[in-house]
Amino acid sequence: MKNSYLIGILFLFVQCDFSTRIDTTAAAKELKARQVKRVLPQEIVNQVDEWGQQMQTKPLDTALRSQYAVRYLEGDAQSLRGQVKDVKIQQVLDALEYSQSMNQEVPPSIQKNVAGDSLYYIYPTAKNQLVMIGFSKVQVIQKMDRKLIK
């Protein structure tokens, strides 16, 4: 009887394959990487500001536009107003046009559309034109540096 228990336990031990054990530290890291993270609105605005400043200092070629999935518009306030359907952005463009007509300095700004699903980085050029770079919030969150998301 004792031998049969011993043989049974030995048989079970041989059947266990310890070579396929899961590395728990790697599994824990993978779970943490896949964890749903919260992105605050201020973090999105900060990211758009950072990218907008980068795009303002270097030429915005097609590759860079597609990398950040942005909408790029350039021209005077009236021509931009005709290209943008959002009422709030049109009002911002009217205000920028007035500021430029009064020879006021127009600093770069970030504006949100009425729906709140897009952010526009707007800055003036040396030729008294305006550049609008439109960012989709969804795209910003997807392209953000994962280390910055808490």
UniProtKB/TrEMBL annotation:
Taxonomic superkingdom: Bacteria
Protein name: Uncharacterized protein
Species per Swiss-Prot/TrEMBL record: Aquirufa avitistagni
